[in-house]
Structure formats: C-alpha cells, structure tokens
Design a protein that fits this description.
Chain lengths: ~150, ~600
C-alpha cells in the first residue's frame, strides 16, 4: 500500500457506522471501470466474496453510461482508459447532479506525485497503486469508505 | 656630413623603389582591387623617388620637364591613395571629381610656376601660392583617407587596427617631410634638418611596408592583446555551447571580430543558415546558394552589391559540408592570407564544436528515449505483476480454496519472488523519476531503528537460518529527517544485497552510529566482497559487478545507484568498504532531525 496517499476516514467510526446501519436491504453496488480484464476479474472475485455487488465497464464512456443507469455506492476508477481518460470520467462524475456525491477510488499503476495530486484535486477519495494493492487490501479500503458514508 | 647625407638620400630613394616593387609583387600575388590601388599609390611614390634620384645622379638630364613629371607622378600617387580608400569606403562621384580637379589644378600651376631647382632660392608670391596649393592638394587626397582609416580602425580587430595605424604613421612622416621641404625655406637645407628628414623618410618605408605585408611575428605581436579573449571564446565554443544555433551565433560573432568584417553567416550541411550577423537569414541563404561549395578556405569576389569580397571557409561537418562565410563591408580593411588562414583555423574549431553539439544532442535524445522506455516499460510491467501478486495473496489467504501441501510449501517462495519483482519494478520507476527530475522527497521525523526494523521485515523471507540477520539495536531513539518509505527501500536494498552476495551463508549485521549531525546505519556481511578495482562501478547506473562467484545472482544494477542517489537527495550518502572474499560493509548516512 505504498502510494496510498489520499486521506481516509478513521477506521473505528467507519466500522461503527457500518454496523449501525439500520437494515441492509441490498448489497452495496460497486462500479469498477477498468480495461484490464484480468485485474478487474481478480478484484471482483474478492469483492463479491466480501458481499458487494460489482458491475464492470471496460472504458470511460461505458463506465459513465453504466453509472447513469445504476448509480453506484462507490466507483473504482482506472486512469489510463480507452475512450475517456479516467480523470475526465472523474470530472464528469463530480459535475453530475446525481452522481456527484459518489466516492471515487482511483486504482492506477501510475503513481507520480503529479497524478496523485491531480486525482486529489478532482475529488478522488483514495489513490491506490494496483501492483501494491492486493484484493484483500482493496476490499478493506472499500469497506472503510462505505462505512463512512451516510447509510442508504 | 655631406657624404653621409648623400648616402642617406640614396638609401631613402632606394628604399622607396624597393617598397614600390614589393607592393607591386603583393598585388600580383593577390590580384585584389584594393591591393592594386595601394600598389599604385606606393609605386608612384617610388617612381617619384626614382626620378628625383636620376635627376640628381645625372645632373638634370630632363631639366624642367623631369621635375614637372616628378611632381605630376607625386600628385597621381595621392589620387591612387584616394582610390585605395574608395575601395573600402566608397567615395562619392563628387568627391572623385573634386579631388581630380584639385590635383589637376595643382599640377597645372606647378608646371606653370617654373619653380626654381635650388631649394634655397627665393620664391615669388605666386610661386609660394603654387607650393601651398600643391601641398594642400596632395595632403587632402592622402590625409582624408588616412583620417578615415584611423577613425575606422577604432572598432577593428587588433591586427587591422595596427595595420591602419602603421600606414597612417608612414604617410604622416612623408607629409611632414613635404611640409618642411616646401615651407622650411633655408631651414630645409640645414644639414641636421636634412638628416632628420632623410631618417624620417627611411622610417616611413618599413611602416608602410608593415601596413600591407606585416611579417607574421609582427602580426602575432599585434594580435597578442586579443589572443586571450579569443582563446577563451574558442574554449567556450567547444565546451559550453548548449545548442548548435547558439554555438553558431557565437562563432559568427567572433569571426566578425577576427577579421573586422561587416557580415557573416554559417551554413549547415543541408544549406540551411544556422546563424547570420549583419544580414538576414534569407539573404545569407541566397548568397550561400550563389557561392556554391569550395574545397578550402579562400577569398571569393562577390560581384554585385556593396560587398566587395567574401572569405568562404568550408566546414567539414559529420553530416556533410557546411560553410562559414565572412563578408567584407565598406569599412573592412584588406582580406589577406592572414585573415584567410586565421578563419580557416577558426573554422576547424567551429566544425568540432558543431559536431560535438550534434553528438551531445543525440546523446541527450538517446538518454531521454531510454528514460521514457524505462518509465513506460516499468509501468507496463505493473499490470501483470498486479494479477500475479493479487491471486497469490488470495491463494495464501485461502480465498481460492485449499491447495495441496506441496503447493502450500512453494507458495511463500512464489509470493516472495513476486514481491521482489514488484520492488524491482518500483526501482525502475524510481530511476526513471530520478532521471526525469520528477523525484520529490517528503521528509518527516522518524526513528532510524524503526525504519531498519521495517526494512528487515521485507527481507525476512530471505533471512533464513544460513543468513541470520543480527540487529544491533540501540536503546535510544535515532531521530532522522527522511522520506520514510524511500529510506526503508534503501535499507532493505542494502540488506537484500548483503544476503544475495553471501551465497555461502554467514550473518548479516545491522548497526548504528552517529557522526557530526548525521546518523549512520551499517550493514555488514561476510559475503563475496568487492574487488577494489570494481568499487568505482559499484554505484553506477546498471553497473553490476559480475564475477564467477556472483554470476548466478540476478539484479538490475539499479539498486545501489538508486540507493545512493536517494541518500544524497537527503543530504546523506552511502559508502562501501570491502575485502574480497571476506565481506563488505555499506554505510548509509542520513541527516539527524533537530530536537
């Protein structure tokens, strides 16, 4: 978890919020926008096992379309994407009235300080380097983050 | 005394005749318009001297006519001087007509005045006026060019300045002789005055000679004050010019100064103008096309336009022939062999400089490409390693079901190796960052022991029973100001090297120390050690030391390079001591944090 830079909410309140959620009617929905199928499948395997619903899109345009169809609880976003660059997707999510509040976690193998800073400026909640993030670690990040969100 | 005076008079006349012949020879060799006029001016002076001598020797065989011809030739020499000046600083048509008119009037009056042969004879008022007109006409035609030359010489390079001054000084003494002879009256016949006049006349000969054909020792002497500045310029040209364009600009500037030209340019091998001074690039390109190519440096006439001639110096560049072209302007003195040789030598320097700049640019481009490749390749490698490490971690965590006991045994090795690969990729990315200047440290206050312990964790899988790692911890905290993650990488790199290069086992020791505001971390092994001769290579990029005992050990050769660079970015360093076959000690120094 070397390049995990963006600030995360403290763990304990997050966990409390998670357990305190009144009733879990449905599984939290994660949208993963990732063009590398092997990586996407691997993370999905873990996340599904941990009780999340995971929808996938292989490029930026489809990712946005998917989000507009099914507003997710959290977005896992790659940066180097076909069709629409990850940061453009991030900007459009932020600019969207309904999608604007969805937490976004950037998952990239490019970890230059400049990119990380740009991701943070555009409102990403976390910036993870894929090769340093095991599926279990990603799942833990997602769990903490969703816990911090108001229960829906 | 009179014998000496007679002898001196002969000597003066002979010297002038020789001078005339020398200028004639100079013109025949160089065949240049300006040199022709100078030869004419001095040659006519010589003829004046010759006629005077003949008159004295043979007791006026031509009588009055001889003296008249002598006077006319003398006046003609003044006009030749004006023509010489006009070949550098063009004289208007009116100026020419005025000068010719004045000289013709002086000549006509001289013939009409019937001046007496003997200098001590009394002159009538008319005759005195004639002498004044005569001297004034000559002095104006000779003095004006000399004055202009002296004026122009101010901004010339040293050699030209000295040549022009020498010419002016030579003519000045002739002018003074003329004044004394014309207006000195009885004084002019006094033996000492005659002696002084003859000596001055004799002195003017080498001065004039030096102005058109200065010997090389004299040119060196003249050039000396400028030499050091020029040498510095050449050195700068060869060593410090960042780009070819900048280099060419500087070279052109110095070429102008060297010969006192008005314009110059450098054409590249493909005919493009690299730099131009005193003319725009378009004009330079057109002129270059018209001049064509030359095998060696030479003076080339430029027929039309105000420019008289050009020195073309071929530049034999690696990519083909370019050229340095220096153009004379109205104020440029003679382009001689001196200038051509000098520019030729300078051309060699320019060629070397331009080619070196090409090499430097190519090497820089190569370096950039390599760094870009390193950057891209390492990022590409991160994709597959993500999947490998991910599934391996899931396998180990039991996410993918149970595995056979045999597989369970190799799983830690797979994990350790994929982790190692991941950190190698990280090293490549760091190296690329370092080279592109994108590496930024985020120093925080930390405990060096803590960092070492964390680093130890990462090499745990390799620290088997054959490689025990001894941690000689200190009781007290060692506060340092470092980028934690990076120094941790550096330490784990030192540790994994210590283990890797101890193929026969042996303990690895971590110890600490302090030295003058720096904290020390030592990693000591009992491995293969490093040959003193290879020490230099140890910290270079991709510098791996391959010996029979280490050939089987893998590595990118980036680790130590990167580690030292990172330590140095912190203001610290990494040093190594080693005895081949006995082991090595690597010492990392990092700045201690202030309390």
């Amino acid at each position: 978890m070397n390049e995990f830079v963006a600030s995360l909410p403290a763990a304990e309140p997050a966990l409390l919020a998670w357990w305190a959620a009144p009733s879990v009617k449905r599984k939290p929905l994660l949208v993963m926008i990732e063009d590398d199928v092997a990586i996407a499948e691997m993370y999905r395997l873990q996340l599904r096992a941990d009780g999340y619903d995971v929808e996938m899109a292989a490029d930026g345009k489809r990712g946005l379309a998917l989000l507009r169809r099914r507003p997710a609880d959290l977005v896992l976003l790659d940066i180097r994407l076909p069709e629409l660059h990850g940061f453009q997707v991030l900007e459009q999510i932020r600019a969207d009235a309904t999608l604007g509040g969805i937490p976004v976690v950037v998952l990239s193998n490019f970890g230059d300080p400049g990119l990380i800073a740009q991701g943070r400026r555009l409102g990403a909640r976390a910036y993870l380097i894929k090769s340093d993030t095991t599926p279990a670690q990603l799942s833990a990040v997602v769990r903490r983050m969703l816990g911090a969100e108001p229960a829906d | 005394m009179s014998g000496l005076l007679l002898f001196l008079q002969y000597a003066v006349n002979l010297a002038f005749v020789i001078l005339g012949l020398l200028t004639l020879r100079d013109w025949l060799v160089h065949r240049e318009r300006s040199r022709g006029y100078l030869a004419l001016a001095i040659g006519l002076l010589a003829i004046t001297a010759l006629i005077g001598q003949v008159q004295t020797f043979f007791g006026n065989p031509f009588g009055e006519a001889g003296t008249d011809v002598d006077a006319l030739v003398f006046l003609a020499s003044a006009y030749a001087m004006l023509l010489f000046r006009s070949s550098f600083i063009p004289l208007s048509r009116r100026g020419h007509l005025l000068a010719l008119g004045g000289l013709a009037l002086a000549g006509a009056l001289f013939i009409g005045a019937n001046l007496p042969q003997r200098p001590e004879a009394q002159l009538s008022v008319f005759q005195q006026a004639v002498v004044i007109v005569f001297v004034l006409a000559w002095a104006a035609c000779v003095g004006e060019p000399l004055f202009r030359f002296l004026q122009a010489s101010q901004s010339r390079p040293a050699v030209q300045r000295a040549r022009l001054r020498s010419l002016a000084a030579g003519y000045l003494s002739i002018f003074l002789i003329l004044l004394v002879a014309a207006f000195g009256g009885s004084l002019a016949t006094h033996p000492y005055v005659v002696l002084a006049i003859d000596l001055a006349a004799l002195a003017s000969v080498p001065l004039i000679y030096a102005s058109f054909a200065p010997p090389s020792w004299l040119r060196r002497l003249w050039r000396e004050p400028e030499e050091s500045a020029f040498a510095a310029a050449v050195k700068e040209l060869l060593l410090f010019s960042p780009t070819r364009e900048r280099l060419a600009e500087r070279a052109v500037e110095w070429a102008l100064r060297l010969v006192g030209a008005d314009a110059a340019f450098i054409a590249d091998a493909d005919g493009e103008v690299l730099a131009a001074r005193g003319m725009d690039a378009g004009a330079a390109r057109r002129l270059q096309a018209r001049l064509g190519a030359f095998g060696e440096e030479q003076v080339v006439p430029v027929p039309d336009g105000p420019i008289q001639s050009a020195i073309v110096v071929p530049l034999t560049l690696a990519d083909g022939n370019g050229a340095l072209v220096v153009l004379s302007g109205p104020f440029t003195p003679i382009f001689g062999t001196d200038e051509v040789t000098r520019l030729g030598q300078y051309g060699t320097n320019i060629t070397a400089g331009l080619d070196r700049a090409v090499l430097t640019e190519r090497i820089a481009a190569l370096e950039r490409t390599k760094t870009e490749f390193l950057n891209l390749a390492s990022h590409e490698l991160r994709g597959p390693i993500t999947v490998l490490r991910g599934y391996l971690s899931m396998l180990q965590g039991g996410m993918l079901g149970s595995v056979s006991p045999e597989f369970g045994e190799v799983l830690p090795v797979l994990t350790a190796k994929s982790d190692e690969m991941n950190s190698l990729i990280e090293q490549m990315i760091e190296a690329a960052r370092l080279e592109e200047g994108r590496l930024e440290l985020s120093p925080v206050r930390a405990d060096l022991r803590d960092i070492a312990l964390r680093a130890l964790e990462t090499v745990k899988p390799f620290a088997t029973s054959s490689h025990p790692v001894l941690f000689e911890g200190q009781e007290k905290e060692i506060p340092v100001l470092v980028d934690r993650r990076r120094i941790e990488t550096v330490v784990s790199n030192l540790l994994s090297n210590a283990i890797k290069y101890s193929p026969d086992g042996g303990e690895v020791r971590i110890s600490f120390g302090q030295d003058n505001g720096f904290a020390l971390l030592k990693v000591t092994d009992r491995g293969v050690g490093i040959d003193p001769k290879s020490m230099e290579k140890l910290f270079t990029r991709f510098g791996r030391i391959v010996t029979p005992s280490t050939r089987h050990i893998s590595g990118t050769g980036l680790g130590l390079y990167l580690s030292r660079e990172l330590a140095r970015r912190h203001g610290g360093d990494i040093t190594a001591e080693s005895a081949p076959g006995k082991g090595s000690t690597f010492v990392l120094t990092v700045p201690v944090a202030d309390e």
